[in-house]
Specification:
two-stranded antiparallel ribbon; 4 helices
């Protein structure tokens, strides 16, 4: 039988954005935690003015800061990163305010890769040069000559 449990071993990843020897030790999130993060990352609500004039609003709120703090807190097991000589405490979301964008983005990408959440753009093919999406959607699929 295949063992499909979450990997509990931490993996070491070197950080190109933290030379000469910056690294993080990362662990995989259990599937339940991925679902929890997805549930909390986006909120939709609809407000209506109460009149039947269709004057309502749809509000979408994203929780990207919360989601990344969740990932860093739960996935980073150890590291050798510091600010002004003090080791960064990634269990506190405030730590994300102090790290450089390059380091934060690299760690984010490594966590996403480890958890199978890396962006996959394979379903999106760019339109041919000189054409637009509207041109592609409005072009007839049948190219046969009907005359």
């Amino acid at each position: 039988m295949p063992d499909v449990g979450v990997t509990t071993e931490a993996v070491r990843r070197e950080l190109e954005s933290a030379p000469p020897d910056g690294y993080v030790m990362l662990k995989q999130l259990p599937y339940f935690d991925l679902l929890e993060r997805r549930d909390k990352v986006t909120r939709l609500s609809m407000e209506s003015s109460g009149a039947d004039d269709g004057d309502g609003k749809l509000i979408m709120e994203t929780m990207q800061q919360w989601a990344r703090a969740f990932d860093f807190r739960n996935c980073i097991v150890d590291h050798n990163l510091s600010i002004n000589g003090a080791k960064i405490d990634f269990t506190k979301s405030e730590s994300l305010r102090s790290i450089s964008p390059a380091v934060g983005k690299e760690i984010e990408a490594l966590i996403d890769e480890l958890n199978g959440e890396a962006d996959q753009n394979e379903d999106f093919t760019p339109p041919a040069p000189g054409s637009s999406l509207n041109d592609q959607l409005n072009s007839p699929n049948d190219t046969s000559d009907d005359s």
